[in-house]
Amino acid sequence: MALEFCLATASSFVAPLLADYLVKPIERRIRYLFRAKLPNLDLVTSKNHVDSKSSDAAFNKIMEALKDDKVQKIGVWGMGGVGKTTLVKKVGGEAKGFDRVIMVTVSETLDIEKMQNKIADDIDLNFEKKTGEVKAAELWSRLSNGKFLVILDDLWNEWDDDEDLRKIGIPLVENGKGCKIILTTRNYSVCQHMECEEIVQVKILEDREAWTLFEMNAGLKNADSSVIGEAKKIIKECKGLPLAIVTQARALKGKGPNTWKDAREKLEGSELMEIRSIQKKKDKNAYMSLKISYEHLEDKMAQTCFLLCALYPEDHSINVEDLVRYAWGLNLYNKANSIEKMRNEVLSVIDQLKDCCLLEDGDDGRYVPKL
Fold it and tell me: Which of 175, 179, 338, 347 has a 20 to 30 A CA-CA distance from 357?
């Protein structure tokens, strides 16, 4: 198992912290970064999802579309943090009638070779040659001889529709053979341009659903009345986004009234809301919730490991053993007198970040930055 790193455009608050925590220590201990290979880790998937009317309706609509022979492409759209990836993973887990379900993260920059390699891994295909055109031909041949569900997660830009699919090596389903496509995107226009026969919107949570999710993650059963009051105000600032709700709730769980008040005031009036790269108010609130979760990490090592993940490009796979090596080389825990001890400390930090919903489980024993 792996982890997905949930960080909405982190660079604006991460960059000033990197030099003090990372650059100087690297100069001192760089020689230790590449030691003996460590085994991969199996990590348990975190549970922080609650079904909503919108997600249930979207799920049912997608499942029906998968049964329709006339539907080749299904577009799932909605704002960042609304739960599109969680939804399509659930669909992939319950879809019937496919030889294999393949999920590939696309992101803002299309990397055809990376996508080809991921698909090949999922269908146990070893490429005979390494050129892009040959890889596409081999994938096309294999995928044309079965029935596959291909989930393209997080499309930012419009593709040249079927031509780009052909370049990758993805044949659309025809006469019961080939691939049905589910794509997720923040932009309705991407679904239109890709000529999706079925387009499904994932909407924000209703007020009651938002409160249920927040209460479940914040542990408010026996909370003080002043905390409950602040919690209700914070929920309004989360604007129904599951990502914002969960990260904020996990960050504030067990904290005192003053901490809750401080978090609410930051959500209501932070200068962070003026970041140009985050234009929509609901996206800004999801971003702010993540930032507050980071600030509430009491362990400096946890903060620094979080920053280490932020150094990687979007959706770049980060091996767990690499984080252990970097932590050892940077001497993040000065009481660790062996790499095995450092590895245990990193695993403890991983659990802490998962509990705060700053890391989520993914695939293949690696971290994948998800922006």
Answer: 338
From 86, 67, 68, select the one nearest 76 (Cα to Cα).
Answer: 86
Written out in words, the top-level CATH class of the domain with range 53-201 is alpha beta
Domain-by-domain residue ranges, the chain? 2-46+298-370, 53-201, 207-295
Amino acid code (one letter) for 101: V
Each residue's pLDDT tens digit, 216-261? 889 898 888 899 999 999 888 888 888 888 888 888 888 888 888 8
Q: What is the pTM of this model?
A: 0.67
User: Which of 94-129 are b and which e, b meaning 16 or more Cβ less than 10 Å from the residue's Cβ?
Assistant: ebeebeebbbbbbbeeeeeebbbebbbebeebeeee
Residue 149 pairs with which residues in a beta bridge? 101, 180
| Cβ proximity of 362 and 3 under 8 Å | yes
Q: Average of pLDDT values for 56-65? A: 94
Enter the tokens of residue 308. 């280490």
Q: What gap in Å lies between CA 193 and CA 338, rounded to an integer?
A: 54
3-state helix, strand, coil in the chain (%, to 5): 50, 15, 35
